[in-house]
Amino acid sequence: MAGCKDCNVFQFCKCLRLLGNVMILVVLGLVALSYYPIVVSIYGPVLFDPKATVGQQVGAAFVVVWFHILGGLMLWSYFAAILTCPGHVPDGFRPDVDPEENPEAPVDKSDPRRPRFCRKCQKWKPERAHHCSICGKCVLRMDHHCVWVMNCVGERNYKFFFLFLLYTFLLSLMSMLALLPYFSEFFGGNGGEADDHPANLAVSFMAFVVDIAFSLSLCGFIVMHAKLVAANCTTIEMFEKERIKPWPYDQGLRKNIEEVFGTYWPMWLVPMHSEGQCTSEERIRLRSV
Ligand SMILES: [Zn+2]
Ligand SMILES: [Zn+2]
Fold first, then answer.
1. Ion ligand 1: residue ranges with CB closer than 5 A
2. What is the phi-psi region of residue 277: left when phi exceeds 0, alpha when psi lies from -120 to 50, beta otherwise?
3. Where is the Palmitoyltransferase DHHC domain (predicted)?
4. Cα(135) to centroid of ligand 2, in Å?
5. Which residues constitute the domain of residue 254?
6. Mean pLDDT per 10-residue segment, the chain (289 residues)
């Protein structure tokens, strides 16, 4: 029975890994789905249309420029989240209080800071680290394994994951608002450009529906992660936090934000590592032999 269960878990993890490879195409396809109607078929041509008014051209330039800025930042954050190692446990790491050497040491099972050992990795786990069965490794300050980024979200790439959510939300919201006047004009009986191109209308409508769905669902997800950042908590620790009061990692709003986004605020929205981030990783490295 145990062998069969192991086999199912293995199959499940393999399926998730394969699904991850498809996700990158899904994300790129979603960007292209909005790019085509907004930049190629609706707003781009206005820039070169001699019949368009200055007001229309300025409006079209605003939409096209912001689409490229948000799209660029979204893809940058996305690939940073995929390609950055989430943070693994260094070889030779030993907890502050090693129960093997000091069996008298107080070990409170409800304390998240207690020394824990990973039987799969045969290594000690630092505080807030968890084993990911899909990656097959322990991940520092693990949040969750994300199929969209084909990677674990942990200490080193949580900022990129959060910015990916934020920029995808802003891009979907902007695309939805940019397509709104086009549809109100079309369904208002004025016809518009779409009359001549039924294929363009179909793509624009599909993009509009997908943008509404994404902006609504991502809004809830961003609020949830913003609350987690503000409280210095991870998705895995959410239930633990309800039990443990006061939460031992809460250092106040500003410090909690800095732990994820860095101490230099102009870099908070840039998908790059900045000073003051990943402080626990440095501490863990110092404690490793
Ligand atoms: Zn492990
Ligand atoms: Zn993982």
1. 118, 120-121, 131, 138
2. beta
3. 114-241
4. 4
5. 10-88+144-286
6. 52 68 88 94 92 93 97 97 93 73 60 85 92 94 93 96 97 95 73 61 90 94 96 92 87 95 94 82 68
